[in-house]
Amino acid sequence: MEQKQINVRVDEETHAGIEARAKAAGMSVQAYAKQVLADEGNDLRHRFLSAGAHFADAWAESFADEFGHPDKADGKSAAAA
Fold it and tell me: What residues are paired with 77 via a beta bridge?
C-alpha cells in the first residue's frame, strides 16, 4: 500500500504530552502519532466505541442494581462493602 505523509506542528506542551505517552507505550513519537491517527481513522473502531457507549448508557442502571452502586464517599461499590 502506498504511504502518504502528514506533517503537523504542535506547541511544546502538546509535544511533551505526546512524547510522554509514546514513551509509556514503548514507542517512538512518530510510531505513536501514526498509531493514534490510524485509530482515529478507523471507522470500525469508532462504530465499536459508539456501540459500547450506547450499551453502557442503556444497561448501566441494571448493572449497578445487580453488582452495586458506587459509594461516593470512598469510591467502593455497595456490593463490595
Answer: 70
